[in-house]
Amino acid sequence: MESTEKKKNQFLESILSGVNYMLPCVVAGGIMLGVSFLLDDLSINPETYGTNLPLAAFFNNNGNAMFSFMLPVFCAGIAFYIGGIAAIPAALMAGALCRDGDSSFLGALLLGFVVGYLVIFLQKILAKLPENFTILKDLLIIPLISVISTALVAQFLVEPVIGKLNLLMNSGLQSMNGSSQIILGAILGLMQSADMGGPINKTAYLFATAALANGQYVLMSAVLAGALIPPYVTGISSLIFKKKFTDEERGQGITNIIMGLAGISEGGIPFLLKDPLRVGGACMLGSAIAGGGSVLLKCSVMAPFGGFFILPLNANPFGFVISVVLGVTVGVVILGITKKEISETKAEAEMAN
C-alpha cells in the first residue's frame, strides 16, 4: 500500500512539475493576448482583429510566441523531474511535435513520462562505459538516442492514437451544433473545467474558434465564461475555506484570481490533481452554468481570448458577468460543502496506510 501511494505521489509530482514550468508561459502569453484585443480596433478589419494596430500586433505576436512554448515546456518539466537535465532536449522536441500535431496536451503529458524513463534506462545501461566516455555519453549518445526514439514513439504511437481521440471529440461537438445552443454552450463551458487546459479544454476552445470563422460568436463567449470558473472557484474557495487548503494552495489561489482576469484556467490544475472528484465536479458544474447562461443571455464576442480584459467587446457584458458570477458562486458553495478539512484528509490517508 505504501509503495502504491509513493508511486501515485511521484506521478502527480511529475505532472505538477510540468505544470509549474508551463504556467509562466501561459500567464505571460495569455495576458499579452488579452491586452492585444483590448488595444485593437475591430472596425479596421474583423478578420485580423488583435493585430490591426501596431501596438496590438506587438502584444499579439509576442503573446502567441509565449503560448507556442507551452507544450514543449510542459513536456520538458515532466521529463526533467524524472530523468534530469539529460531528458530536456528530447522532451522539448516531443512537446513541439504534439503542439504542431493533433495529440496536443495529452500527447505532451504522455511523452514527458516516456522521455523521462527512457533517459533513466539509457543512463543505467551506459553506466558501465569508461569515465573517458562520460562527456560523449551526456552530450551525444543519450540526447541522440532519446531524441530519435521519442520522435518514433510520437509519430507512430502517440500522434495516431491521441490525435484520433482529439479529432473524435471535435466531431462529436460538430454533430451537436444543430441542437440547442444553450445545451451546447453548457457542454463547451463544462469542457473548459474538465481538465483545465488539457485536450478536452482545448477541443472546446478550437471548436469555438472555428465557429468564429463561420460568424457564430455566441459559442466563444460560452467557452470564455467556462474558462473563468476554475481559477475563481479554486482561488476564492482557498481564501474562504482556509482550513481546507494548505498555505501553498492559498498562495496559489491568490495567483489564480489574478490569472482569472485573463481567463487562464490552467492555474486550477494543481488543485484538480490533488482532489479531482471534488474540485473537478464543482468547477465543471460551475462552468456548465456559466457557459449555458452566457448563451441564454445572448452574450457573444469576436475575440478568441482575454477573459475580463475583453469584457467591453462582448455584446452583453452585463449578462456575461452574471453568468460567470453565478457559475463561480455555485462552484464555491459545492467545493466548500464537499471538500474536507486538511486534518481529516491526513487522518484518512494514515488509516489507509
From TrEMBL:
Domain of life: Bacteria
One Gene Ontology term of the molecular function aspect: protein-phosphocysteine-sugar phosphotransferase activity
GO cellular component term of the entry, any: plasma membrane
PANTHER family the UniProt entry points to: FRUCTOSE-LIKE PERMEASE, PTS SYSTEM 2-O-ALPHA-MANNOSYL-D-GLYCERATE-SPECIFIC EIIABC COMPONENT
UniProtKB keywords: Cell membrane, Membrane, Phosphotransferase system, Sugar transport, Transmembrane, Transmembrane helix, Transport
Pfam family, one: PTS_EIIC
Predominant location category: membrane
Domain PTS EIIC type-2: 11-346
Topology class, membrane: Multi-pass membrane protein
Subcellular location: Cell inner membrane
Keyword Transmembrane helix appears in the UniProt entry: yes
Ranges that cross the membrane: 20-39, 69-92, 104-127, 139-158, 206-233, 253-273, 285-311, 317-337
Entries under NCBIfam families matching the protein: PTS_IIC_fructo
Record carries keyword Transmembrane helix: yes
Name of the protein in question: PTS system, fructose-specific IIA component
GO annotation terms (biological process): phosphoenolpyruvate-dependent sugar phosphotransferase system
